[in-house]
Amino acid sequence: MSKTTRANFASKLGIILATAGSAVGLGNVWRFPYMAGHNGGAAFIVIYIGCIFLLGIPGMVSEFIVGRHSQANAARAYFNITGGNRRWRLVGYLGILTATIILGFYAVVAGWCLQYLYASVFGHLNGDANYVLSYFQTFSTHPWKPILWAVAFILITHLVIVRGVQNGIERASKLLMPLLLILLLVIVVASCMLPGAMDGVEFLFRPDFSKVSHDVLLEALGQAFFSLSLGTACLCTYASYFSKETNLLRSAGQIALLDTLIAILAGLMIFPAAFSVGVEPDSGPSLIFITLPNVFQLAFASMPVVGYVIGVLFYALLVFAALTSTISMHEIGTAFFSEEFHLHRDRSAWIVTSVCVLLAVGCSLSMGAVEGLGLFGLPLMEFCDMLTSQVMLPLGAFLTCIIIGWAVPGKVVRDEFTNYGTLRGTFFQLYLFLVRFVCPLCILLIFLHQFGLL
Length: 454
Fold this sequence. Notes:
- It is a single chain.
- The chain is mainly alpha-helical.
- It has helices at residues 12-23, 26-30, 32-38, 42-70, 74-81, 86-121, 129-140, 145-161, 165-192, 197-205, 214-227, 234-239, 248-277, 285-299, 304-340, 345-365, 380-407, 410-417, 428-450; strands at residues 374-375, 378-379.
- It has a two-stranded antiparallel sheet with strand order 1-2.
- It is globular and about 65 Å long.
């Protein structure tokens, strides 16, 4: 596929919404609010925003430069920007493999969201706390029900991908991202109107600098890194569809702002409702599949219809958030097979879909239906999560910084940063300093912290 026939995003809005959608996901809902609330509230948020400037935006711009300069899939993009260095091509392969593995196990959790949307619509989540806990445990360990929902989610993603960049990815993003924001705002308003809700707002936004420690700084750094999907080749692949007029630095800033806004709104959705009924929110899947169904049920006990609507809207929101992420991850592999093997887009998409279905089946069964299905003493689901988040993502992002900072000629980097001199490039030297020295150090610290070495 030649560069002249390659698709591009049709609008600036499409670029922002599609790329922000790749970053916005379930982690914004179940990880950021918990970390902010329990690590100093507003103090954590301020540190997190600082980390976005130190690591997030420079990292995003670096992947944008790789993708847009080459106008190719991730593997070829790294090959092209390094002047045909085959060793650096492996960084692109790493990103493709990482995204495929993530899509495989992420689809399982996304399938749980679909099941819970279905269950909330038909009122199956009504019951006491023990019932809700039992419901999740029974469903997540069932031998075939979670698989059906995971496969359904992958097929929905597939239907978007086969329609192409403009008619599929961009159009879906323009629909899903505004819907996600609207649903989020509706639930935030409803949550903040509950009795005692302001205690939850205060908990989230009250700065408690006594909690700021070495670990909190590293947690904020890690959250900034993972929240923006650095190291997955999502940003690189989407940037290959950017026009040459796209302002990369401004786009990165807008995407980071939107991602952070959604994460903070998620906190305003969760903490006021939880504090209203005296429930301490935790993190991870237990938050959205066990804790929050109880919270919404208790908080709106006097208004059952409102509680029902909020429950349905909440799981619709999760489905939309998950879908914006799975679309971007699927596109990475689809673009690779289409361009490297000259396959029709439909066939390329089916290859990625088939591989991810197999991974999703294995990950789902490893959650309890099949004992011993895993690697290195971990269930396959947990192993895939650990491998990608703790090893592959940091490694991919670290190598991208090294490539842009040291392996690519400075003129090439500057030309892309300034759109070949049409932009002033005021912050270029600062950007280059961050990419060469600060970002690699930050990623190394995150890596060591994850393994308990720091």
